[in-house]
Amino acid sequence: MILETFPVGPLQCNCTILGDEGTGEAMVVDPGDNIPQILTFLAQHKLTLKQIVVTHGHIDHIGGAARLKKATGAPIMLNQNDLPQLAMMDQQADWLGVPTPEIVLPDQSAEDGGIIGIAGHTARILHTPGHTEGSICLHFGPENLLLAGDTLFAGSIGRTDLPGGDSRQILRSLRESLLTLSDETHVIPGHGPATTIGEERDSNPYLQPGVRL
Ligand SMILES: [Zn+2]
How far away, in angstroms, is 100 Cα from ligand 1 center? Predict the structure, then answer.
Protein backbone atom coordinates (compact mmCIF):
# COMPACT_ATOMS: atom_id res chain seq x y z
CA MET A 1 0.00 0.00 0.00
CA ILE A 2 1.16 3.50 -0.81
CA LEU A 3 0.21 5.94 1.97
CA GLU A 4 1.31 9.55 1.84
CA THR A 5 0.12 12.45 4.00
CA PHE A 6 1.27 16.04 3.59
CA PRO A 7 -0.07 19.41 4.79
CA VAL A 8 -1.70 21.65 2.17
CA GLY A 9 -2.84 25.27 2.08
CA PRO A 10 -2.54 28.10 4.63
CA LEU A 11 -4.25 26.08 7.38
CA GLN A 12 -1.99 23.06 6.73
CA CYS A 13 -4.80 20.55 6.26
CA ASN A 14 -3.46 16.99 6.07
CA CYS A 15 -4.11 15.63 2.58
CA THR A 16 -3.75 11.84 2.32
CA ILE A 17 -3.12 9.81 -0.81
CA LEU A 18 -3.74 6.09 -0.60
CA GLY A 19 -2.70 3.90 -3.51
CA ASP A 20 -2.19 0.28 -4.48
CA GLU A 21 0.95 -0.69 -6.41
CA GLY A 22 -0.74 -3.78 -7.85
CA THR A 23 -3.83 -2.21 -9.39
CA GLY A 24 -2.48 1.31 -9.80
CA GLU A 25 -5.63 2.74 -8.19
CA ALA A 26 -5.61 5.64 -5.76
CA MET A 27 -7.89 7.72 -3.61
CA VAL A 28 -7.23 11.21 -2.26
CA VAL A 29 -8.72 12.42 1.01
CA ASP A 30 -9.06 16.16 1.74
CA PRO A 31 -7.39 17.85 -1.26
CA GLY A 32 -7.71 21.30 0.28
CA ASP A 33 -4.98 22.81 -1.89
CA ASN A 34 -1.60 21.99 -3.55
CA ILE A 35 -3.27 20.22 -6.47
CA PRO A 36 -0.07 20.25 -8.62
CA GLN A 37 1.77 18.46 -5.78
CA ILE A 38 -0.99 15.82 -5.59
CA LEU A 39 -0.96 15.31 -9.37
CA THR A 40 2.84 14.99 -9.38
CA PHE A 41 2.72 12.35 -6.65
CA LEU A 42 0.07 10.36 -8.54
CA ALA A 43 2.12 10.53 -11.75
CA GLN A 44 5.38 9.57 -10.03
CA HIS A 45 3.74 6.43 -8.61
CA LYS A 46 1.80 5.71 -11.84
CA LEU A 47 -1.49 5.91 -9.95
CA THR A 48 -4.94 6.52 -11.46
CA LEU A 49 -7.21 8.53 -9.17
CA LYS A 50 -10.50 6.70 -8.61
CA GLN A 51 -12.03 8.62 -5.72
CA ILE A 52 -11.85 12.01 -4.02
CA VAL A 53 -13.18 11.96 -0.46
CA VAL A 54 -13.72 15.10 1.60
CA THR A 55 -14.11 14.58 5.37
CA HIS A 56 -16.19 17.76 5.75
CA GLY A 57 -17.15 20.92 3.93
CA HIS A 58 -14.59 23.36 5.33
CA ILE A 59 -12.60 25.32 2.76
CA ASP A 60 -9.21 24.03 3.91
CA HIS A 61 -10.32 20.42 3.21
CA ILE A 62 -12.44 20.86 0.06
CA GLY A 63 -10.80 23.90 -1.58
CA GLY A 64 -8.95 21.94 -4.28
CA ALA A 65 -11.46 19.14 -4.86
CA ALA A 66 -13.09 20.71 -7.94
CA ARG A 67 -9.66 21.33 -9.54
CA LEU A 68 -8.56 17.77 -8.78
CA LYS A 69 -11.77 16.39 -10.26
CA LYS A 70 -11.30 18.51 -13.36
CA ALA A 71 -7.75 17.19 -13.79
CA THR A 72 -8.53 13.51 -13.19
CA GLY A 73 -12.26 12.94 -13.69
CA ALA A 74 -12.47 11.22 -10.28
CA PRO A 75 -15.82 11.64 -8.45
CA ILE A 76 -16.12 13.57 -5.19
CA MET A 77 -17.73 12.17 -2.04
CA LEU A 78 -18.95 14.37 0.82
CA ASN A 79 -21.64 13.71 3.40
CA GLN A 80 -24.83 15.49 2.32
CA ASN A 81 -25.26 17.09 5.76
CA ASP A 82 -22.36 19.40 4.85
CA LEU A 83 -23.98 20.83 1.70
CA PRO A 84 -24.83 24.01 3.73
CA GLN A 85 -21.06 24.46 4.26
CA LEU A 86 -20.58 24.62 0.47
CA ALA A 87 -23.28 27.29 0.24
CA MET A 88 -21.21 29.35 2.72
CA MET A 89 -17.94 29.16 0.75
CA ASP A 90 -17.72 32.94 0.19
CA GLN A 91 -17.98 33.47 3.93
CA GLN A 92 -15.43 30.73 4.64
CA ALA A 93 -13.02 32.34 2.17
CA ASP A 94 -13.53 35.74 3.85
CA TRP A 95 -12.57 34.26 7.24
CA LEU A 96 -9.31 33.04 5.72
CA GLY A 97 -8.76 36.10 3.56
CA VAL A 98 -8.42 34.04 0.38
CA PRO A 99 -10.37 34.09 -2.90
CA THR A 100 -13.39 31.76 -3.02
CA PRO A 101 -12.26 28.51 -4.65
CA GLU A 102 -14.28 26.87 -7.39
CA ILE A 103 -16.68 24.43 -5.74
CA VAL A 104 -18.67 21.65 -7.40
CA LEU A 105 -21.43 19.62 -5.80
CA PRO A 106 -20.33 16.15 -4.63
CA ASP A 107 -21.09 13.25 -6.97
CA GLN A 108 -22.17 11.07 -4.08
CA SER A 109 -22.99 11.46 -0.38
CA ALA A 110 -20.61 9.69 2.01
CA GLU A 111 -23.17 7.96 4.24
CA ASP A 112 -22.57 6.24 7.59
CA GLY A 113 -21.66 2.57 7.17
CA GLY A 114 -20.87 2.92 3.48
CA ILE A 115 -17.85 1.09 2.11
CA ILE A 116 -15.51 3.12 -0.10
CA GLY A 117 -11.97 2.94 -1.32
CA ILE A 118 -9.92 1.25 -4.00
CA ALA A 119 -9.35 -2.38 -4.94
CA GLY A 120 -7.71 -4.10 -1.97
CA HIS A 121 -8.03 -1.16 0.43
CA THR A 122 -11.54 -0.30 1.49
CA ALA A 123 -12.78 1.84 4.35
CA ARG A 124 -16.01 2.04 6.30
CA ILE A 125 -17.50 5.52 6.52
CA LEU A 126 -18.17 6.68 10.09
CA HIS A 127 -20.53 9.67 10.22
CA THR A 128 -19.14 11.65 13.17
CA PRO A 129 -21.10 14.93 13.42
CA GLY A 130 -19.97 17.65 15.82
CA HIS A 131 -17.20 19.65 14.13
CA THR A 132 -19.70 20.01 11.30
CA GLU A 133 -23.02 18.23 10.72
CA GLY A 134 -21.59 16.17 7.88
CA SER A 135 -18.14 15.31 9.28
CA ILE A 136 -16.98 11.78 8.51
CA CYS A 137 -14.02 9.57 9.41
CA LEU A 138 -12.71 6.69 7.28
CA HIS A 139 -11.78 3.42 8.99
CA PHE A 140 -9.58 1.01 7.06
CA GLY A 141 -10.06 -2.17 9.13
CA PRO A 142 -7.29 -4.54 7.90
CA GLU A 143 -4.83 -1.61 7.74
CA ASN A 144 -5.76 -0.49 11.29
CA LEU A 145 -5.97 3.05 9.99
CA LEU A 146 -8.35 5.92 10.73
CA LEU A 147 -8.49 9.12 8.72
CA ALA A 148 -10.16 11.33 11.31
CA GLY A 149 -10.74 14.65 9.55
CA ASP A 150 -11.24 17.42 12.10
CA THR A 151 -13.11 15.21 14.59
CA LEU A 152 -10.03 13.99 16.52
CA PHE A 153 -6.53 15.47 16.81
CA ALA A 154 -3.47 14.37 18.78
CA GLY A 155 -4.30 15.74 22.25
CA SER A 156 -7.37 17.68 21.13
CA ILE A 157 -10.64 17.56 19.21
CA GLY A 158 -12.23 19.63 16.46
CA ARG A 159 -13.62 23.07 17.27
CA THR A 160 -17.38 23.31 17.53
CA ASP A 161 -17.87 27.08 17.52
CA LEU A 162 -18.30 27.45 13.75
CA PRO A 163 -21.69 27.15 11.97
CA GLY A 164 -22.94 23.57 12.16
CA GLY A 165 -20.69 22.75 15.13
CA ASP A 166 -22.11 21.03 18.22
CA SER A 167 -19.96 20.21 21.26
CA ARG A 168 -22.29 17.56 22.69
CA GLN A 169 -22.52 15.88 19.33
CA ILE A 170 -18.74 15.71 18.83
CA LEU A 171 -18.31 14.08 22.26
CA ARG A 172 -21.01 11.56 21.36
CA SER A 173 -19.32 10.85 18.03
CA LEU A 174 -15.95 10.40 19.72
CA ARG A 175 -17.27 8.12 22.46
CA GLU A 176 -19.76 6.05 20.47
CA SER A 177 -17.82 5.80 17.24
CA LEU A 178 -14.07 6.43 17.47
CA LEU A 179 -13.39 5.09 20.98
CA THR A 180 -14.93 1.75 20.00
CA LEU A 181 -11.93 1.20 17.68
CA SER A 182 -8.94 -0.77 18.94
CA ASP A 183 -6.10 0.97 20.78
CA GLU A 184 -3.67 0.01 17.99
CA THR A 185 -5.61 2.00 15.39
CA HIS A 186 -3.25 4.46 13.71
CA VAL A 187 -4.94 7.87 13.43
CA ILE A 188 -4.17 10.50 10.79
CA PRO A 189 -6.03 13.66 11.88
CA GLY A 190 -7.11 16.50 9.62
CA HIS A 191 -4.31 18.69 11.03
CA GLY A 192 -1.11 18.05 12.96
CA PRO A 193 0.76 14.88 13.90
CA ALA A 194 -0.47 11.30 13.72
CA THR A 195 -1.51 9.41 16.87
CA THR A 196 -3.30 6.23 17.94
CA ILE A 197 -6.71 5.57 19.47
CA GLY A 198 -4.96 4.12 22.56
CA GLU A 199 -2.82 7.23 23.05
CA GLU A 200 -5.88 9.48 22.79
CA ARG A 201 -8.00 7.24 25.02
CA ASP A 202 -5.28 7.52 27.71
CA SER A 203 -4.21 11.14 27.48
CA ASN A 204 -6.59 13.29 25.39
CA PRO A 205 -8.21 15.62 27.96
CA TYR A 206 -11.48 15.73 26.00
CA LEU A 207 -11.87 11.96 26.02
CA GLN A 208 -11.63 11.37 29.75
CA PRO A 209 -14.69 9.94 31.54
CA GLY A 210 -17.10 12.57 32.80
CA VAL A 211 -15.90 15.38 30.52
CA ARG A 212 -18.72 17.67 29.37
CA LEU A 213 -18.47 20.54 26.92
ZN1 LIG B 1 -12.75 21.81 9.67
Answer: 16
